[in-house]
Amino acid sequence: MASILDLPHELIDRIVSEFQHDLVNLPPFFQFASYVRRLDMPIMDNFLPSAILPPATLAQLPNVTNLSAHSDPFDFRRLPTGQKSVLAEAASRLTSVEIITDYLWPLPAWAALLNGCPALATLVIKAEAAYLGSWTIPWTVADFAFPMPTPSAPGTLRLRTLRVSGDCKILVPLSAWLIPQGALATLQTLVLDVSYVRKDYSAPDARPALVLAAAPSLRELTLHLDPPMPLTSPDIAAPIRLTSFPRLRVLHLRDGPYADIGASLAWLGAFLQPPSSSPHAHMHPEVSALEALSLDHNMIRRDLLAVPVATWCAIEEALLGGEVDAGGRGKRYPHLRSVTFKVYQKFSFGVPDVFEYFSGTVRERLPRLVERGMLVAGR
Question: SUPFAM superfamilies, alphabetically (predicted)?
Answer without folding.
Answer: RNI-like
